[in-house]
Amino acid sequence: MTSTQHTYFQNMYALNADPWNFATSSYERRKYALTVNSLPRERYVNAFEPGCSIGVLSELLAPRCERLLATDIIPRALEQAISRLKALKNVVVERRTIPESWPDGLFDLVVLSEVAYYFDAETLGYVVTLIVRSTTPGSHVVGVHWRGETDYPLSGDRAHQLIDKNAALQRVVHHEEEKFVLDVWERTT
Ligand SMILES: C[S@@+](CC[C@H](N)C(=O)[O-])C[C@H]1O[C@@H](n2cnc3c(N)ncnc32)[C@H](O)[C@@H]1O
Q1: Could you tell me the distance, in angstroms and rounded to a whole number, from the CA of residue 115 to the centre of ligand 1?
Q2: Domains of the chain by range and CATH?
Q3: Pocket perturbation via mutation, ligand 1, pick of 30, 73, 142 by most ligand atoms within 8 A of CB
Q4: Could you report the per-residue pLDDT of 42-53, keeping only the tens digit for each?
């Protein structure tokens, strides 16, 4: 199994504290709003957001969750996430590598925002297996990914096709436009 090397992200954050302009881009702001507004339920009990970066989406997800676990691998990103989210007592920020340090517990919402294409197909398949194992029927899984050319192991579209292959997940929301694809799956079985 392979994933994009951690040094790639380390270098990105060393050069720029917000390498994808999550905090300032109007494109990201609109995409985040669509993501949060696509959640089928008003409230979730226990949500997990791997690859949270500096916590901009986490801040928008938090009001919809009783508890949100937001994780990343890069300390410079996590420091910013902790600072941004410190007033939100329902959010826990942790350093965790996915899939190696998958958290214990049952989640009713898992959000994969711009993170699934950093895994190869086999690893993403394993990540989806872990998601299915740590959710119950009725839980939701969100995927939202850039559709443009990259040198990542998977394209955004391919990542969503692979997630969709898992028989325990049924797609309940699909939105696609030139730059990104957004899907919500419900855990069925
Ligand atoms: C493009 S950013 C996405 C940030 C956030 N999800 C959003 O949409 O605003 C990808 C993040 O995933 C993190 N990441 C990459 N591979 C990871 C892994 N294997 N485990 C946990 N986090 C990872 C990176 O450090 C980076 O901060």
Answers
A1: 5
A2: 6-187 (3.40.50.150)
A3: 73
A4: 999 999 999 999
